[in-house]
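Dear Dr. H.,

I hope your travels went smoothly. While you were away I took the liberty of generating a structure for the chain from your last submission, since the lab meeting agenda had it listed for discussion. I wanted you to have the full record in hand beforehand rather than looking at slides cold. The sequence, exactly as received, is reproduced here:
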Amino acid sequence: MSDNEMLDEFDKKAKKFLESGKKERVLDILREFALVVSYDNGKELDNPKRFMDQQGFDEIEIDDFTEYQVAKSMIRDQVKRSA
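The corresponding predicted structure, in token form, is as follows:
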């Protein structure tokens, strides 16, 4: 299985933006991810931007795919804790 086959839709978008130098768009991907994860955990996240701000994620600079994956994992954990 190739690396691309193991990436979900969020990973593919984030990787594309990081490779093209559009790092600011990665936070949009993470906000969307937070919204979906909260829904999957039976919780409705009314304002993903506010959630990201409150958790301090909007202050993180993501420069590469590994940093994105760490932030994504942290968001998933935080949403599960608050669900």
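Two observations you may find useful: DSSP finds four helices and no strands in the chain. The chain has a mean pLDDT of 87.

With kind regards,
E. W.
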